[in-house]
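FAQ

Q: What does a record look like?
A: Structure on top, sequence underneath. For example:
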């Protein structure tokens, strides 16, 4: 009887260890580099980044880097991201000309 219980415990432990190694392998996948932020100003307020507000707030949104002058602008961005992404795309198009 002891032999059967020991075997079951060993199988359970082996299963747990296998699950842990799989999740670690997923965590180790390389991520795509973020699309860089094209402006020197906050996309929401238009304030210069790194000015009176201090260090910019950096945020990742759908594979791209977004910079804000403050946390409040991040809240405004979250209300209508498409509006501000459109601004960024226009700035990128202008810069590539």
């Amino acid at each position: 009887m002891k032999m059967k219980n020991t075997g079951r415990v060993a199988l359970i432990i082996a299963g747990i260890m296998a699950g842990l190694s799989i999740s670690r392998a997923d965590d180790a996948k390389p991520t795509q580099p973020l699309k860089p932020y094209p402006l020197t100003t906050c996309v929401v307020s238009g304030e210069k980044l790194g000015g009176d507000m201090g260090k910019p707030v950096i945020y990742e949104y759908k594979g791209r880097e977004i910079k804000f002058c403050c946390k409040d602008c991040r809240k405004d961005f979250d209300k209508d991201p498409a509006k501000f992404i459109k601004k960024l795309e226009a700035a990128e198009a202008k810069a590539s000309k």
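Q: Is there anything notable about this one?
A: The chain has two domains: 1-30, 32-97.
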